[in-house]
Description:
Low-confidence stretches: none
Order of helices and strands: HHEEEEEHEEEEEEEEE
Amino acid sequence: MRVKIHHEGTNILIIGFIAMAIINIPLWLWVRPLAIAIVCTSVCAVLYLLVVNFFRSPKRRFPGNPVNAVVSSADGEVVALERVYEPEYLKCECMQVSVFMTVLNVHANWFPVDGEVVYVKHHPGRFLAAYLPKSSTENERSTVVIRTPEGQLVLMRQVAGAMARRIVTYAHPGVEASIEDHMGFIKFGSRIDLFLPLSTEIFVKIGDKTTGGITEIGRLRPGKA
């Protein structure tokens, strides 16, 4: 099966391949015993394949009814599910659902709901381990708020982790959000926080695995407090 690579990884993979060639070709030509070249090339190949795996860019189509659906924005594991106060934009109590991504997960991020982007802001910060609760407010992060067709607001936050050093956010105010489209990308280990209305029916629990663009983590209930 052909692996599609996300455009965020193109330059990294090209530079990495060239670096591998520069390191390994002289070993095969001039270094003896050949076991040294075999070991070095094998290690480089494994590391390169891990990077290729990280930058996978699968095309996904949500199989359910998209109306009022809240779909996971990322591949990973649910690490937080709690009632919290969201102070940045919503300024009210919400249900927070957080998904932690390891370096082995796809790191493309999907819009969690259909609607219109009404707010985008990037925040500089620290690079604590992304599974820690305080990473949501202290780490480098990007906040995106989407208004659904029914008028409800959903806040999505991309949070950098200990290894992540670049958050990419494609959304900007006025853009149409679709659960089948990429909202952004986070490079090398990170977390996604979703802040949902308290009336949202939640379908996941702590420890559940999610697939971005596929797993329905909840369903909005317009008109209910």
